[in-house]
Amino acid sequence: MLIKINGDMTEIPEGSTIREAIEISKAPYSKGSIVCLIKGESEIQSNILKYKIKTPKGSVLIELSSDDKLQPLVGFFKDNYKKFISSTIRWDSSTEVAMGPVQSNFEPSHDEFQYHDNDVLISLSGFSNEATHIIFIKDDVSNVYGVPKYSDNGVFAKVIGGRKTLFSLTSSDEILDIEPVIERSTVRDSAGGSDLDVVLEEGNQLFTYVLFKPNPKSPVSVEHLFSLIRNNKIEVSFESNSFVGFYELQGLGKDVEDVTERRRGTVTLRSEGHGKGKVFVYREDRVNVKSHTTIATVESGMELFDIAREGDFITVRSNPERIMLMMMTQKESEEKLKSLGIEQVRTGTTDDDAIVVVQEPENTIAILENKKVETFGIPANKLIKVELTDDAPRSRWYFEKLTGLAEKPVGSLKVYFAVPDMNIYMFDGDKDESKGLVPENTIADTYIAGTIGITNMSRKNVGLVGIRTVDSDEFGPTGEPFNATNVVGRVISDLEDLKSIEDGDTVYVYEVYEEEES
Fold this sequence. Notes:
Blueprint: E1 2-5, E2 8-11, H1 18-25, E3 36-38, H2 41-47, E4 50-55, E5 58-64, H3 71-80, E6 89-92, E7 96-102, E8 113-115, E9 119-124, E10 132-137, E11 141-143, E12 155-161, H4 163-168, E13 177-181, H5 184-188, E14 191-193, E15 205-207, E16 210-214, H6 219-228, E17 233-235, E18 238-239, E19 243-246, E20 266-270, E21 279-282, E22 292-300, H7 302-307, E23 313-318, H8 330-339, E24 343-348, E25 355-360, H9 364-370, E26 372-378, E27 383-388, H10 393-403, E28 410-419, E29 424-427, E30 451-455, E31 465-468, E32 485-491, E33 506-511, H11 514-517
Parallel strand pairs: 1-15, 16-23, 24-26, 27-33
Antiparallel strand pairs: 1-2, 3-14, 3-15, 4-5, 4-13, 5-12, 6-7, 7-10, 8-11, 9-10, 9-12, 16-22, 17-23, 18-19, 19-21, 20-21, 20-22, 25-26, 27-32, 28-29, 28-33, 29-31, 30-31, 30-32
């Protein structure tokens, strides 16, 4: 049987489940993400109320009536709107513009009716159903238009956009296209999120992922979007009628870059003010504001954002993809860049098996423009692998911001004080960022070697980060009492590798998640 998967017709065996269809089609999908299932094209079409009519002078947007008694007229338009494409404007006057004709089965009325500007009606010109036209009213008027009998005055829609275009049209203008306007409500009322064991039927439509197109005019802010994506998934923090929000990096603002209108499918970053760092995907059009940088548009898969709820994961892809070389070896980076036609300049430790911990430029757009990137490597045993805890949310966020792990796979810390003989290593903090580090997840009665501690606001050296390579019953890794030390995580790489670091060194850290350890 035939179904559509992410817009492409795909043949699958009868009785296949969503899970099997994904496997057969090799559709992009990450475990734990939602999918969107629509029974058929008719389900979508039945819920569409807005249509955009494109002309050389601009577009006219109309909204169909939802009144039950007008459904014969609305249904006629939905069934026949494509027939008007490529025709010219039939006539225009000071009060009306007409497009057509097409044939219908309506019977004409000979009655006169009152019309108002922005009305859209069906007219049987010359009282003949072979000359059925669509009339756009530009000014209040009373007239006999031969509207379909029993349809009141024949009005089935309203002009809700492009009125200026309507007044500029003449009989020499062509109808370039007429397209349905898909809205969030259209998809929401037609679709359902579904588990992967649902059996599919002929004509179903399945959406498994979203494709982003990054905005090249916002190169720095685009990386903020990439930083929200982990294992090719993004988690919804908030949803409303007009947008879906992603707030994981709230507080990390960027300078304002390209500002555009916020159309349906536009992705923006709040660059300044309250809520800076939040990312929004718009379900409906919104006016542009100077504090929102446009970072991408949704190329396909908007249906998933339409049905998503708070806490849902959505599989995402990007074109172009993020160029992130950190945690690759120098050799792997070389091969990746070569496939993209980009020159690699190795710095630091240049051996093939050295781990890349810094790339310059950092952002994808700049790399693609420059066609060159420096990759700074270190020996694998110099990379400190850490696991962070969820039991100290403020301290964890502080540590991720301080190191840069909030936005990239490898972060860094500057060594403030290293005394191998005392088995203690301290790292610079940030006094501004550390404000508000209340005591949380403090050491109970014994410090365990490898635990990462941060001095909380009960002491003057708030924000200082420390690690000890031996257990202690006396004080924490920043030299403070246990109740002044917040535990943010632990080092899971070999603690012996810390013993070579010295004051002023920069060390590089990589956050390991539970699924990576197993």
